Amino acid sequence: MNDFVERRMALEWHEPKPSYDVVIIGGGGHGLATAYYLANRHAISSVAVIEAGYIGYGNSGRNTTIIRANYGLPEAVRFYQHSLELYQTLEADLDCWVMHETKGIMWLAHTETQMRAERARSLLNLACGAETVMITPREAKDLCPQLDLSGGGRYPVLGASYHPAAATARHDRVVWAYAQGAMRHGVHVVQHTKVTGLRRDGARVTGVETSSGPISAGIVLSAVGGSVSTIAAHANVRLPIRTHPLQAFVTNGYEGPFAGIVSDTELLCYVSQTERGQMLIGAEYDAQPSYSLQSSFRFLQTTAAKVTHLLPFLRDLRILRQWTGICDISADFSPIMGETGVEGFLVTTGWGTWGFKAIPAGGEQMAQLIATGRTPALLEPFRLDRFASDLTMADPGSAGTH
Amino acid sequence: MLWITCPTCGRRPVEEYRFGGEVRAVPEWISDPAQRDVDYVWMYDNVEGVTTERWFHAAGCRRWLTLRRDTTTDLVVS
To answer: 20 to 30 A from B27, CA-CA: which of A72, A87, A270, A329?
Structure first.
């Protein structure tokens, strides 16, 4: 954490106690939100969040901050729509500005097949309570005048689905806001402490081993992004997850205005403008699994070529900064939340490239599960045992990166 | 940046290859046959460290190769 933030927010750090009711591994959005809702809604404040780096160091600080609910399965639409609505009132709930701004997202289609897919998705979204409508190329151009409807002559725009409730928020502010909210209710957040193992009593998980000693816990929740397979292996829990790097970059400031978020079903890239005026560009994740945070020039080359077909003005900008996060991609491209089959050990994982938008709902629902011991209806479809029961939630098309 | 040495074509950039998945076995400790099937179909070791995997040299000799790679540094170790 930097001094600037520390001075302006009521963040209070603690040394870990030997024992808590709940220990959450991973001080990112999902971990801190779960801790906040546990303390705020369920009066469980004997909670520690253990973070290997500093809070928001992982994918919570490396994503492209898009909040949307235009998914392709009813269960997913309901879950993400709930999250999107929680984000809309988050600033009031947490008494903290997170720079939430509703912008709308359009998904461009270039072929009749993609148009059909987008139409189907729009109808499904409407049926499940998320507003998504089809728009014509003309309407797309009215929303985003910078758009080249011929797609550089190679990717003509036939239409798009438009999801007006899509928004962005400042990712690190979301993390800090949840951390502050949790700390106000007595949650301990412990930074720079790595979890090196899980404490076991027979099959049951009873705590964690950390770089600063053991901590025992009634419930251990893994909310890590990246090393979840390693953590779960300590409890002999097998996960259908591969960890892939995902890169993104920003340009220097664009005077704009640039309205909304532009995403593309064929080119698999998305563009939005940050609060600082930079153009933020992301694309699909790297093909091979890796835990390396190394960025590549090839990614810049490929992605720049893609986005300049659609938005030629980007050619005049310069790339300012690029970075990499590591994403847990589940086998069916949907998150995995809840019980693991090992008593005392829960996971919230498989957040791939879609975790940021789910922070409020994921945290709220995981807290409810921990507090009541029963899986809430919204989480039921995302259980780990769906793979064994052949009830997978295959939704790669909605990830926007695959 | 990942470079892979192909036995036929030599040292070539990763863009020429297609990732073919980790080489893994269902863990010994899973004894229930149905659970072993679930593990075989769905689960990954997803190793944070040195792992063995298959690659296909799609834009080269179009042959498969097996290598060991450190997933924390993205370096091929053998």
So the answer is: A329
DSSP class of residue A67 equals: E
In this complex, do A240 and B43 lie within 8 Å of one another by their Cβ atoms? yes
Residue A261's DSSP bridge partners are A105
Closest partner CB to A230 (pick from B14, B39, B48): B48
Instruction: Quote the CA–CA distance of A340 and A186 in Å, as a whole number.
Output: 28
pLDDT of A6-51, one tens digit each? Answer: 667 878 899 999 999 999 999 999 999 999 999 999 999 999 999 9
Distance of CA A290 to the CA centre of its chain: 18
**DSSP letter assigned to residue A239:** B
Complex ipTM value: 0.92
Distance from CA of A293 to the nearest CA of B (A): 8
- A165: DSSP letter: T
- Report the residue from B13, B41, B71 with minimal CB separation from A290: B71
* DSSP letters for B30-75: ---HHHHHHHHHH-B---SSEEEEEEE-TTTT--EEEEEEETTTTE
Residues A27 and A50: beta-carbon distance below 8 Å: yes
Q: What is the pLDDT of residues A159-173, one digit of tens each?
A: 999 999 999 999 999
Query: How many Cα atoms within 13 Å fall on the side-chain side of residue A322?
Result: 20
Long-range contacts of A206-211 (CB under 8 A, 24+ apart): A206/A344, A207/A19, A207/A23, A208/A23, A208/A25, A208/A50, A210/A16, A210/A50
Interface test with A, best of B24, B42, B67, B76 (most A CBs within 10 A): B42
Which site among A195, A200, A290 would you substitute to test the B interface, given the most B Cβ atoms closer than 10 Å to its Cβ?
A: A290
Q: Is A389 on the interface with B (CB under 8 A)?
A: no
